[in-house]
Amino acid sequence: MIERSLPAGSGHLARVRCSERCDGDFAVRSNPELLARARSSLAPGPWTWLQQVHGANVVVVDEPGAQCGAHADASVTACVDAVLSVQTADCAPLVLAGEGLVGLVHVGWRGIVEGVIGATFDRLHGLGGEEIHALLGPCIAPAGYQFGSAELDLVASVAGDSVRSTTTEGSPALDLRAAVSAQCRDAGVSSFSVVGPPKSATPFDTADSRWYSHRTRGESERQTTVAWLEKR
After folding, report:
1. Which of 165, 212, 214, 222 has minimal CB crowding within 10 Å?
2. What SS3 state is found at 29?
């Protein structure tokens, strides 16, 4: 488990935890008993987990555990101790925090195209958030993310040409990290940081065996990222 935090306005802090392979499988369709045990070891209390659909729907969580199982790819809350979660195996977990608010976004290439990051910023702004800070968790690096040219053009059309990269073998690849950063910047993010090695500007790569990866190893298991508000 990796732990980080983000400022969330006066009197609040957003606590963030990212699981690793050794913390277990957090796929929502995994063994219920093992899943419950893994969740309780990572963060206490009821979780808000989502049926992720690679869209732009954002739900508001008014109490711990609310909106559980909603078909959405992002959740936001002003409720202290309400645990938000997303499950990933290459897609990017993105935490947004500010002014007594926290949001958590599941971002894949379709979510980039659909505008899930901008939609989450809009929802946070609508709840009174102005100075929004972002934290990008472990996700796949372009070296292992070969991508079709048509899909790459589509992502570049909404996130800019910085998303174009190449794999280790020289094939076209998507830089998902660059896409997330670009859309956060377009949304007016106040600060952008990553969950990565010390002094690194890029997040951990899920192609590493420390994490589950569908693209690299065809794994069906998922890691999770959770975030919740705490009072300072």
Report:
1. 214
2. coil
Catalogue all structural domains in the chain, each as residue range(s) with its CATH number: 2-231 (3.60.140.10)
pLDDT in tens, 135-167: 999 999 999 999 999 999 999 999 999 999 999
User: What are the Cα distances from residue 109, in Å, to 159, 215, 227?
Assistant: 10, 13, 22
Alpha carbons 213 and 9: distance in angstroms, whole number: 35
The string of pLDDT tens digits covering residues 56-90 is 999 999 999 999 999 999 999 999 999 999 999 99
**How far, in Å, are 103, 195, 203 from residue 200 at the CA level?**
24, 9, 7
Structure tokens, 74: 């992002």
Beta bridge partners of 3: 17
Nearest Cα to 95, choosing from 31, 2, 172, 160?
A: 2
